[in-house]
Amino acid sequence: MLDSDVEQPVNIGNSDEYSVRDLARLVLDVTGSASELRFEPLPVDDPTQRRPDLTLASERLGWRPEGRLVEGLRRTATYFEQVLAGQSELRPHSRTSLALSGSSASSVQ
Question: For residue 5, is it within any domain?
Answer without folding.
Answer: no
